[in-house]
Design a protein that fits this description.
three-stranded antiparallel beta sheet, flat, 3 strands, 2 domains
Length: 94
């Protein structure tokens, strides 16, 4: 590990620039830590009741999406929703 404190400003800048180019990290070693609060759900979206229904081998579980989203009210968020569909295999297409 490199001791950044004992390096010259020029050498520190070169290391930081190298990290930015390598990892796309701004500020290199000086990046602040993060605390992330996240929720991940996978199931059928029911907008009429604002719920997500997850069906597993252990049973069906229903999650109140509105209640979950309320935990993030007035906070800066990143939101991703995706639909997953299995692709047919080559022998299924024939």
């Amino acid at each position: 590990m490199v001791d950044m404190i004992n390096l010259s400003p020029t050498r520190r800048r070169l290391i930081n620039d190298g990290l930015e180019n390598l990892f796309g990290v701004k500020g290199g070693f000086y990046k602040m830590a993060k605390k992330i609060h996240s929720v991940s759900l996978k199931g059928i979206l029911d907008m009429s009741n604002v719920e997500v229904h997850e069906i597993t081998k252990d049973g069906e579980f229903v999650y109140d999406l509105k209640k979950i989203l309320h935990e993030f009210h007035d906070k800066q968020v990143s939101l991703v929703i995706k639909e997953e569909n299995e692709l047919p295999t080559k022998d299924m297409e024939e």
